[in-house]
Amino acid sequence: MFDWLSFFTPYLPWLALASFLSLILVVVLLPAIVLQLPEDYFVREKRQPVGRKKGHPVLMGMVNLVKNLLGLLFILAGILMTVLPGQGLLTVLIGMMLVNFPGKYRLEQALIRQEMIARTLNGLRRKAHKKPFALPPAP
What we know:
Blueprint: H1 12-36, H2 57-81, H3 88-98, H4 104-112, H5 115-127
Helix pairs in contact: 1-3, 2-3
């Protein structure tokens, strides 16, 4: 019945390493990202870019490319972590905050409405003596 899972057997050590490394990245990046965002980030009608610096267009383009690739990596790792050990939804949320795509803001709002995610992110903010996120109303 689960013979198709044998395909993943040679990759299990790499998947375990990726899960461990993403856990370390989440532990480091999650507080940095969550604490940088303003408390009204998820309820603004029109979102303003946070911490966007002006610089040379080529350098800013490269930074944007790296940011989007890193975000895509987080999203893929988060999807894998929904079936593997790890904190999948939080990893997907971090990845989504990094990448740019149409409808991103509405999807972030839907995720922050999840009680577990809101409680975790606001817990991080509380420990850093920051105001909790204002949560968007249900649609």
